[in-house]
Automatic annotation (TrEMBL), chains A, B:
Residues 17-289 form the Aldehyde dehydrogenase domain. Keywords: Amino-acid biosynthesis, Cytoplasm, NADP, Oxidoreductase, Proline biosynthesis. PROSITE patterns: PROA. Catalyzes the NADPH-dependent reduction of L-glutamate 5-phosphate into L-glutamate 5-semialdehyde and phosphate. The product spontaneously undergoes cyclization to form 1-pyrroline-5-carboxylate. The lineage of its organism: Bacteria, Pseudomonadati, Pseudomonadota, Alphaproteobacteria, Caulobacterales. It comes from the Bacteria. One of its GO terms (molecular function) is NADP binding. Belongs to the gamma-glutamyl phosphate reductase family. One of its GO terms (biological process) is L-proline biosynthetic process. The keyword Aminoacyl-tRNA synthetase does not apply. It catalyses: L-glutamate 5-semialdehyde + phosphate + NADP(+) = L-glutamyl 5-phosphate + NADPH + H(+). The keyword Secreted does not apply. GO terms for cellular component: cytoplasm. This is Gamma-glutamyl phosphate reductase.
Length: 424, 424
């Protein structure tokens, strides 16, 4: 190992140790103290707007020099409105009920013990993300709300912005009397830091959360020695059932695809019930085309919508994140379920129908984190679910599925009260 | 790869495929059908007693020939009473509320969507265990109750017994109209089967549950490509606080250590508050010694209990699973928490005290799956918790902690009902 790598590893291990100690101290803080820290943080972000924007301007300038695409620069760039958005998100998280200490269940079995299942923080979370600097504030706020310490590792593109935001976070945390190392940002762009985190920092990391593109998440899932809560991709489907109302089908499909094409909850494949394709598809397709969406269909869809290009097998497996939609005609709910089972990523699927039975069979048969009935797949979002914010959408089946807010960043323990009982 | 290994891998991949298909079919079964299958299974186990015992006799004879210890043979050996115990456990699990489809939460955020968080099966579970043949029936029953398909891999010692039990399970499942491949047992003792499971069977395994000794669990956690729910060990502590009632301290400690020394919930280290050591320790130690327990103490403990041998650093880190107890005098709740933080395994800890404040600080400060107040650590058990049975005690922090019953073998999805909502 080179000296540089050894020094990096030492720094990361030390960061892990400090995070563990901070997690222990956080355990003794009150919900009110954590709420107070979040309010201070929101105010401090507003007060530090100029510093944050000037750090961000340096990141953006470097990104332009490096020839990054405008789409990436748009993810990276902050504006006064975006800084205000960060502060407002922190306030929304502050307004969430504090999950720690909440009783999930309580009962007394035959042995007379009083058993309570109580929410507790997980401990130390490592969040690995890419070029959106607002994640620094969002992740910090969600970790504070849930009583966890966090090690944040941002992409090198947004390092200066994230440092400026992390400095604001840490002073707000310290001023509120919480342990300053509750939130730590890896201060250097070295890639070895990610390797160190994946190796678990000597057992100091309880959970790794990758938030970013497919290759980042895949690397984390393949290499991590600690548990991972990640989303792989959002290959979301909207299914128009024979029982669909035409108006609902038109506006839900248009929104599900085109509201924002780059989010993981955007619909990538439209499935249409053969029994109603003639009634539904032409109007739905016309709306999409008028909005600038390219349609790629199977033979039956193309027969109904002239000018649609031909879909290949690859279209069913592609998360476009672009104004492109694949379209397939299927045999009712069962046909839709077959397609989703084969090609879906377990993220979010929607059915449009007025037929309660069809809706029920679809909701039961789809094994995805989120199933929507008569609503847009773009609602797959922690804010829309009422969580105040989210650290991502989990497509893991274990621990938490769907939007991951503060509550999903907790675990539980059993507190069992007896009166001297011994086990027979 | 040798031909043998290739054939084994093919068999295992095929098993994974059939498990996945069975999991899909199970999704469409009703709670009543699953309850019916469990009742049939309990009856069928009783009816097959002779077959099961004769298969078990062959396992036991082979184990004796191989020179296995009497302790291991005791784990392996079945008797009519133990077969009845298996049947009774299946009935207790049948009597549990079926978790699948249960609504965990339901709310309507500002967007007007009706959001329900609904319990669903995880999918395909792989259970890897060692020489206790009753696990074959327990694991099958818990997986059926929770709507999961299971691939069971028993230790080679109990293969004939497990095959006999698995045959009973599969006919009961088929007779109840459930997919027969819902429960599959790896029919050969080949170790390559474990490797294939750890590699994830081409994505067919959603969760791996190792149930057995430390080395098995450690291997699974190190190598598994699918999520793992395991317990590493139970290094459980009982802490006698200054506020302890002497009688409760005596009977809880004796039970916590000596009821059964080989279970993971057995206490391995006794911590005694300095402020009350003189009052509590001599009597507690006398009870333990009289029951045949060896005591290994620090200097302060030895000063109070002549004849106690000297504890070394290794004693604080050893899960004895034997009639040996390490004893340390500590400075109150904080001293106990420090010791547990440093040496505990996150399984189960108990405090004996009548002081509510001390109990509260202990319960809050201990980051273990189970914290007991005035009760024996040996209550760490799914049956005692009212779960009907358990597949083990999880010391993982993610997904499920403590006893893992049918409910802990489920995940959830969101079923979201709208009226044509689109996202602004």
């Amino acid at each position: 190992m080179s000296d540089l790598n050894a020094a990096m590893l030492d720094m990361m291990i030390d960061m892990g140790r400090r995070a563990r100690a901070a997690a222990e101290s956080l355990r003794a803080t009150t919900p009110d103290a954590r709420t107070e820290a979040l309010h201070r943080l929101a105010e401090a972000l507003r007060a530090a707007e100029a510093d944050i924007l000037s750090a961000n301007a340096r990141d953006v300038a470097r990104a332009r020099d490096a020839g990054l695409s405008e789409a990436l620069i748009d993810r990276l760039a902050l504006t006064p409105a975006r800084v205000e958005g960060m502060a407002a998100a922190v306030e929304a998280i502050a307004a969430q009920p504090d999950p720690v200490g909440g009783e999930i269940a309580r009962w007394t079995p035959a042995n007379g013990l009083d058993i309570a299942r109580v929410r507790t923080p997980i401990g130390v979370l490592a969040v690995i993300y890419e070029s959106r600097p607002n994640v620094t504030a969002d992740a910090a706020a969600l970790c504070l709300r849930s009583g966890n310490a966090a090690i944040l590792r941002c992409g090198s593109d947004c390092l200066e912005s994230s440092r400026a935001i992390a400095a604001v976070v840490r002073s707000a945390v310290a001023e509120a009397g919480l342990p300053v190392d509750a939130i730590q940002l890896v201060p250097v762009p070295d890639r070895a830091a990610v390797g160190a985190i994946l190796a678990g920092l000597d057992g100091a990391v309880d959970l790794i959360i990758p938030r970013g593109g497919k290759s980042l998440v895949a690397r984390v899932q393949a290499e991590a020695k600690a548990p991972v809560l990640g989303h792989l991709e959002g290959l979301c489907h909207t299914y128009l059932d024979a029982g669909a109302d035409l108006d609902v089908a038109r506006r839900v499909t248009l929104n599900a695809k085109m509201r924002r094409v780059s989010v993981c909850g955007a619909t990538e494949t439209l499935l249409v019930d053969r029994a109603a394709a003639e009634r539904l598809l032409p109007a739905v397709a016309a709306d999409l085309t008028a909005a600038g969406c390219e349609l790629r269909g199977d033979a039956e869809a193309r027969a109904l919508v002239p000018g649609m290009t031909e879909a290949t097998e690859a279209d069913w497996t592609t998360e476009y994140l672009a104004p492109i939609l694949s379209v397939r005609v299927v045999g009712g709910v069962d046909g839709a379920l077959d397609h989703i089972r084969r090609y879906g990523s377990g993220h979010t699927e929607a059915i449009v129908t007025t037929d309660e039975k069809a809706a029920g069979r679809f909701a039961e048969g789809v094994d995805s984190a989120i199933v929507l009935i008569n609503a847009s797949t773009q609602f797959a979002d922690g804010g829309e679910f009422g969580f105040g914010g989210e650290i991502g959408i989990s497509t893991s089946k274990l621990h938490a599925r769907g939007p991951v807010g503060a509550e999903q960043l907790t675990t539980y323990k059993y507190v069992v009260r007896g009166e001297g009982q011994t086990r027979p």
